[in-house]
Amino acid sequence: MYRSHNCGELRLTDTNKEVTLAGWVQKSRDKGFMIWVDLRDRYGITQLIFDEARTHETIMQQAKSLGREFVIQIKGSVIERESKNANIPTGEIEVLVNELTILNEAQLPPFTIEDETDGGEDLRMKYRYLDIRRNPVKNSLLFRHKVTQEVRNYLSNMDFCEVETPYLIKSTPEGARDFVVPSRMNPGQFYALPQSPQTFKQLLMVGGLDKYFQIVKCFRDEDLRADRQPEFTQIDCEMSFIEQEDILNVFEGLTRHLLKKIHDIDIAQFPRMTYDEAMRKYGNDKPDIRFGMVFGELNAVTQHKDFAVFNNAELVVGIAVPDAASYTRKQIDALIDWVKRPQVGALGMVYCKCELDGTFKSSVDKFYDQTDLAQWADATGAKAGDLIFVLSGPAYKTRTQLSALRMELANRLGLRKPDEFAPLWVMDFPLLEWDEETGRYHAMHHPFTSPKKEDMHLLDTDPGKVRANAYDLVLNGNEIGGGSIRIHDKETQSLMFKHLGFTPEQAQEQFGFLLNAFQYGAPPHGGLAFGLDRLTAILGGQETIRDFIAFPKNNAGRDVMIDAPAAIDNAQLDELNLALNIKG
Ligand code: ASP
Fold first, then answer.
1. DSSP character for 583?
2. Which of 299, 337, 526, 584 is the most buried (most CB within 10 A)?
3. Protein residue closest via CA to atom 4 of ligand 1
4. pTM for the complete prediction?
């Protein structure tokens, strides 16, 4: 038996017990006649004591040789500590050691294994296994386990069946690039790693499984933005014989279950907002509704004067920044520069201070009088003491820019409180999205999403106006889940492919299996997928998903610990029939 107890469980009530413990040496303090060692494992830290007066000399000698992160096993008796440590659960006791075995020595770790470490990000990634020994990382992994366990509990209790779908598949277009795997046995042919199990879960519905879920890795070869991982995990779900309302209820229930189990928070009915409303009020299809600064449209109250910038704009829109009327010229200029950065792309920004005495002072006083500015305040909900920022230009672009500013200000003003949770559904997304680059429509969600029946007639005349039976679950300004009611008949699916620019032959070649399946009695079905990494991070009160992944990739998509991706040797390339395709 390696251990009778773990390092986190001994208490005063265990005094006089003979115990065996195993773990890592967190640190040791050598006072010559007395040595204390903090022994650490996943469960906590227990103080060991070696005392010249009570410990055999050879063991004293051994104890003196212990270095940080040595793996040891000890036997000893639990005694009450003289100076107690109220900060740790085992702080009232220590173990007087009478037997010590060094199980493994350790080199000096490249950074300190403490809650606050001196190791930089890169170093910690390279030695991730050491980083995992630190409480913050270890706790994040334990937290993730708790979230997945609660997900499994909730869904299993509702009769969802967990099914594994294959990783070596054929490419499914979901808007990103596929990772591909060459097939040795089929020269010149490739598998694709799934961007999601979308078509498979639909086929499980055709197979009559009724309720499916899977906690599953998905792969997308996207240019990496901060906090995106090329492989990530989804809680993927699908249900048959349901309407949109049923899905919203089940997964609102799941989210509520998680908030209750993890934070003991009760949240009533989640608000619902159409995509159009989200864009109009927040300039964003994943609005953070924990704070205000709701958009106020100002066309009606700005376009009656001689200010050409506003008069020529499709949209004039503003937000009221709470209690910011006291900002200095310098602070305001800095924010104007911020929106003019290429990442945001505004050409300029107008402001209006709502002074505490009820007057207004704007950067366009030449054009607008106090009555005009009072109307701006009305439209943006500004009160005395607030500062109104106004952007103008093409509607979509301007909304996006103002949204970026809104989020930036909220971050700076500390309005995005990590322990506050504000979920909502965003619904009625457009079915199609115009892609400037390719000059054609793309499915906004994916090609299997059903159009709203009442909008079907617009498919030929005004495709951009067709709304989809698609919904996203948004939490604190992040999309944590999204899904749709699916098309389940061959005709509509073929029509959809046609609108996405597929010839019937191309559709058949790529998706024949699905179109065929729809001919054998496909039930009405729909579903959604949650992003587990992000969901966990947000529930954990953080926004970096990397902290909740055991072995994440860095911003360049590399695993710096195992050094992947890496070249493979010629023999391997040969075997995969790739050798000739590689230049140089
Ligand atoms: N497969 C979709 C996605 O990955 C989710 C869904 O429609 O269920 O976003």
1. -
2. 526
3. 196
4. 0.93
